[in-house]
TrEMBL record:
Protein name: NitT/TauT family transport system ATP-binding protein
Pfam families according to UniProt: ABC_tran (PF00005)
InterPro entries: AAA+_ATPase, ABC_transporter-like_ATP-bd, ABC_transporter-like_CS, ABC_transporter_ATP-bind, P-loop_NTPase
Region spans: Disordered: 262-282
Length: 282
């Protein structure tokens, strides 16, 4: 999927969308201002930006959990007016139900959609196999590592066959080695299942590793200020992290944030992260 394909055959269309909130004191806060964006079918798009720039708010608007204050959001040509079955969500913490087995957690779609339990079980078993957890179907969340729990969350999000997968910092709570492994796993799952993915991260290198396109957002109010196409070949490997081509993409992104005094470099994993103030915009 190229940028030109996304423009001419978009699956997600966001046109001049803004979102404002009212504080308890009655003041208006603009979280997003005049956002326009098109994302193509099977495209993997990553958003980076400092906390408070409205990344999570944008995902909530696309999912239908929040209404836009102005502008239009469409998925597959139809307006988003509330939560819908063709969108799956994966969060930073998978929020698995501890009293349910891995298989039962993955089958949650049968409880909240018209899907039959027979079909939900068939699809849950398929996606647990896809994420490498078929042999843990009878285990409970407390018996799994953090990375394994997150894979259950990804499988659960895919069971109802969404067209779009929205991922809000899904690997942010994982250690560096597990995060690397999960990036490889997500790329493999995406290449096999061909979903459209919109992914949020604070890691510049994670963004370059996963994305077809990286969107750079600024804060207060949240706006998209740059789009960078990542033309690295797939499947991408961890060896690419040391390549000149990969480094050039990372450098291009870092230039947008080099005036940020809080730019930091963690000890391992996917490297440079953006400054993270205390609280994300609503």
């Amino acid at each position: 999927m190229t940028w030109e394909d996304a423009v001419t055959h978009p699956l997600i269309e966001i046109e001049r969308v803004s979102k404002t909130f009212t504080t308890r004191q009655g003041a208006l806060v603009t979280a997003l201002d005049d956002i326009s964006l098109r994302i193509g079918r099977s495209e993997f798009v990553v958003i980076v930006g400092p906390s408070g720039c409205g990344k999570s708010t944008l995902l909530r608007l696309i999912s239908g959990v929040l209404p836009a204050s102005s502008g239009a959001v469409r998925v597959d040509g139809t307006p988003v007016t509330g939560p819908r079955g063709d969108i799956g969500m994966v969060f930073q913490r998978p929020a698995l139900l501890p009293w349910r087995t891995v298989l039962s957690n993955a089958m949650l779609a049968a409880d909240v959609t018209p899907m039959s339990r027979t079909e939900a079980r068939r699809r849950a078993e398929r996606f647990l196999d896809l994420v490498g957890l078929a042999e843990f179907a009878g285990a409970y969340p407390g018996e799994l590592s953090g990375g394994m729990q997150q894979r259950v969350g990804i499988a659960r999000a895919l069971v109802h066959d969404p067209k779009v997968l929205l991922m809000d910092e899904p690997f942010g709570a994982l250690d560096a080695l597990t995060r690397d492994h999960m990036s490889l796993e997500l790329q493999r799952i995406w290449m096999e299942d061909e979903k459209t993915v919109l992914f949020i991260t604070h890691s510049i290198q994670e963004a370059v590793f996963l994305a077809d396109r990286v969107l750079v957002m600024q804060a207060r109010p949240g706006r998209i200020v740059e789009e960078i196409a990542v033309d690295l070949p797939r499947p991408r490997t961890l060896r690419m992290l040391n390549s000149d081509a990969f480094g050039e993409h990372v450098a291009a992104l870092r230039r947008h944030f080099e005036n940020e005094e809080a730019m930091s470099e963690p000890a391992g994993g996917h490297g440079a992260v953006l400054p993270v103030p205390a609280k994300e915009a609503p």
